[in-house]
Amino acid sequence: MPRVSPYAMVEVPDALAAILERAQPLGTEHVGLTQARGRFVAEDITADADLPGLPRSSVDGYAVVAGDDAAQLEVLEEVTAGRLAQAQVTRGAAVHIMTGGTLPKGADAVVMVEDVEEVDGHVVLQHKPRAGENVHPPGMDLAQGQPVLRKGSRIGAAEVGLLATVGCASVPVFRRPRVAVLATGDELVEPHQTPPAGSVRDSNRFALIAAAEEAGAEIVWQAHARDDEQALERAMREALAKADVLLTSGGVSMGTRDLIKPLLEVMATIHFGRISFKPGKPLTFATTSDGKMAFGLPGFPVSSLVTFEVFVRPALLKLGGAQTYMRPRVEVAVAHDIRPDAVRLEYQRATVTWQDGRFVARTTGLQSSSRLMSIAGANALLEIHPGTQTLATGTMVQALLLANL
Ligand code: AMP
Ligand code: MG
């Protein structure tokens, strides 16, 4: 076993570039509107027609001719949403109209029911109606041909509503990346088991499954394997046959039972096997000859989730067709002194709040790579560049926002 890693130390931007340049959308499919939430639309979607198609009343009231100053107006008929009036409105006449009703011919204003007096079949207007009053003109909400959703945008509630509005009932979306998750380690037991001395419960598999699903992936395979070469190779081959992306946890360091890198060397091409990053220096990235991706994530729970967040999440989103796959960045003031790592870029977990006109960040306590509590509840990763000088309280640093503030 060599004492020095055979893998060159790769800087974070280069590692990310090596991943993202190989992450291209996997294909498209159609789903129904109730299945579309969280997916990424695969084509530009445009409005099929003006909305509203005809002038429409925005209130319950009386459709009249603007400027009509007759003492009282004859009510010709009543029109509700979804029905068209027969009558033609002229000065001295009105049509009783409900919210969403189409304006009758001749009418170009609606006086709210609150602004009229109704006297047996006639109405008295309390003000002279202005042209366009309480009228939604055709195309006000959507103009025919107008772009509604851009290719690669994420479909949320408003987007589902828009798709329905423009008649896109079968929605073109990108295919979700299929992900396999393999936890490795002789020390691992299942979460329902009580770990014997020296063992720990497998948390990475479940955390990574959750993180991958949040990034839009479909989990098609998952397992735990012991640190045994044959067992690992069998599991990795099976996973890669089923999935677009294999995530392994553990077994990428310099220990004698760290077998993932040598196995990836056999079944794929390793693009990097070490990054100048904390937590998670041994992160490994490889691709197979048929274009599948494999990420060897470190075993410590924080290293595994933070490297997922920074390197795998953008890849899964991009594979899944997302146009925006990087977290938003903001400048934050640190609320206490922070000591940087001497050589590696470090992402410290923090909570960011808005305080006295700026974002202020507090780290989540001990930043050990085994301490999952340092991620739980964090809403940001602070980007701490390597150096020898302590960052004093109030220093501005960049943060990746993980959740809405
Ligand atoms: P490794 O990188 O395989 O040497 O793993 C380093 C350490 O991370 C192990 O000693 C375990 O304490 C921990 N670890 C590895 N895999 C898992 C896992 N699936 N769940 C929780 N902890 C893990
Ligand atoms: Mg291990």
Description:
By secondary structure, this protein is an alpha/beta fold. It contains six helices and 26 strands. Strands 7-4-6-5-9-8 form a six-stranded mixed β-sheet, with no helix packed on it. The radius of gyration is 31 Å and the shape is elongated. The mean pLDDT is about 95. It binds adenosine monophosphate and magnesium ion. Adenosine monophosphate (AMP) binds near residues 298 and 300.
List keywords for this structure.
405 residues, alpha/beta, 30% strand, binds adenosine monophosphate
Ligands (ions, cofactors included)? adenosine monophosphate, magnesium ion
Shape: elongated
Number of helices: 6
The helix-and-strand class reads alpha/beta
- Distance from N terminus to C terminus (CA atoms, Å) equals 47 Å
Provide the residue-averaged pLDDT: 97
> Radius of gyration in whole Å, from Cα?
31 Å
Adjacency order of strands in the biggest sheet = 7-4-6-5-9-8
Helix content: 10-25%
How many beta-strand segments? 26
Q: Kindly estimate the percentage of residues that lie in beta strands according to DSSP.
A: 25-35%
The major pleated sheet works out as: 6 strands, mixed
Give start-end ranges of low-pLDDT stretches.
none
